[in-house]
């Protein structure tokens, strides 16, 4: 910028602003007046906005504006409206029987949607977000149920839990046969191999099947039943199928038999409302493994 | 605008560089001729379509709206005569916008700012508002005189002003009114609106569009084109030397001479220009410029100066089209004594036409062959596969069925995947084994949870494709989707 004298550009015939860069001069093209006025209006608008609405951050709070507007309050109102709309639907859900919910596409969709979020909030920490479970935490997608897989049985388990301390909870546990001195080390190895043979799994060489059967009959049949088919009344798993909550290899079985197992499922009654528990029962049942 | 200025004529304002320029009021004079006629007809067509289209009916059966063109926001549907679009088909709009943009490019490379001059709403409504102004207050000179006069307002003048603004507001209000009719059943909404029972939002939109129409067409006018609209800048980048634009043929017009002088000089056998410097082209120009200064950004190429000049040429017995659609190449050729050439068909226009044909054709094809039954499948991600107690493997899928037709359907679902696999839909007891059937109501979607179970003995290795077929068992229509069956 050298010269500040405006002059006339010889090509366009327009006046210049007098600004010049390396011989290139800037033409003076004034803005239209309405444009300038609009610009000032936006400035006035912005100042008014600061005054009317919350705008400026202060050290530990912010200016609140003239009418104390808050977007958070707006959200609260919206949420309350949503609850009201949901309310009616959840009432319908609470009134229908579990079987009817599964038969009605609209109720099923509602129960699954509701069940899914509630499951994510409450159950996923143990059972996983897709209910695929982990060692010690049952997979809820499969058809193997410790406490039964019908809609009513699932609902009951959710309501009262297992070994949860609730008065109506599922009781019964796998005893620690080794730790409590009921069975000796070689007996445990033998019965572990016997259990593997029930499931059709390979067994250790020189395993005494007759002894295994005898130990099993004396100690295990009471809960797991003849032939190890399990008993949902006591939460005793079927030992002949392909699903193993704590593993089916010999070492895991030995650990289970000697240390015992007693996983805990909390009771949800009182913590979740009945309609929500219903929705969750339908959701878990509809994952695919329900009976 | 590009007049050469003598530094002596500059005011002190110019020297200090004024920050803003006042809007110079334009008083376009009425004119008649070919282009004026074209503009009147196009205005009638454009406004006619805009104002009356919502009232056109189209029978779609009982449960669908019977308005030919309707944007149904609450139900997320768009109706256009025989076409009904769902939100997930928004790509048709994308295609339409692309085609529209390329059509603009094509128009531009053929005849310059055809859009600006004849079709743009800003031009059409401004033109209409000018017509009202002329009708009420008189033509250019009269209005200039009235605006300048400092006499106290007489009743006659006041009533003129009131009348003009009332008509303007009425047009503006109609414009806003027609707009909301595209979003609701038009006859019903009109009834509700006049009995003050219409939805609040409709009144708000009518208010907004009344205000913008009144402001943009009554006051902003050429300022919109010169300062607000991006198109003049864009089109400047799209044009080329062959594009025809409204052009003053200076090869023929210069040197400007008065009628009398020209006749005298011609009698002496001298070369004189045809332009008689009558300023008629300037008087009719809605943007208030002088086309004789060459191509200018302000020129919307409405062609009215062509009409004005043609009328003058006819009167003085010279050939028409001293101003016409032309380009610099031809002006130069004529100056060199060569015949002008017009190249409408050239790589640029061929290219644009090809793009329009390709995208347009593809859209028409997909629209014509689009199915009214559709299925989307989403494989469960967690867990991907489930082992059952007997060792068999189960995969779960979320299946979304779309019934875009106007009738309820009974749908049967088949899955072709791993050998001996069985399928089951949650909440549905299959009548036929492995062929779950469900009802999807018209114009709706259903989301299902579908399980595919493959027996233990023929578990596929890792992953095999599964093809889902959904069949309308009444009509035989089929839609399908493919996913995978995965083993842990
Ligand atoms: S410049 Fe813009 S607003 Fe003006 S006529 Fe052209 S497209 Fe329309
Ligand atoms: S110069 Fe001619 S074509 Fe351009 S806007 Fe004015 S009247 Fe229309």
**Straight-line distance between termini of chain B:** 78 Å
Q: Quick one: biggest sheet of chain A?
A: 2 strands, antiparallel
Strand order of the largest sheet of chain A: 1-2
**Radius of gyration of chain A in whole Å, from Cα?**
36 Å
Structural class of chain A: mainly alpha
Characterise the protein shown here.
The complex is a heterodimer of chains A (291) and B (488). In chain A, 29% of the residues are buried. Chain A has a two-stranded antiparallel sheet. Chain A is 46% helix and 4% strand. With 291 residues, chain A is mainly α. The mean pLDDT of chain A is 91. Chain B has 488 residues and is α+β, with helices and mostly antiparallel strands. Chain B contains 17 helices and 15 strands. In chain B, the strands form four sheets. In chain B, strands 7, 8, 9, 11 and 13 form a five-stranded antiparallel β-sheet that branches. In chain B, strands 12-10-14-15 form a four-stranded antiparallel β-sheet, with no helix packed on it. In chain B, strands 2-3-4 form a three-stranded antiparallel β-sheet, with no helix packed on it. In chain B, a hairpin with a 5-residue loop joins β8 (386-387) and β9 (393-403). The longest helix of chain B has 27 residues, at 155-181. Mean pLDDT of chain B is 91; it is low at 1-5. Chain A binds chain B through residues 6-8, 12-15, 17-18, 28, 30-36, 102-105, 108-109, 112, 128-132, 139, 141-144, 238, 241-243, 286-289, and chain B through 2-7, 10, 14-23, 220, 223, 226-227, 380-383, 386-391, 394, 396, 426-427, 438, 446-447, 449, 451, 456. β3 of chain A pairs parallel with β1 of chain B, so a sheet runs across the interface. Bound molecules: iron/sulfur cluster (2 copies).
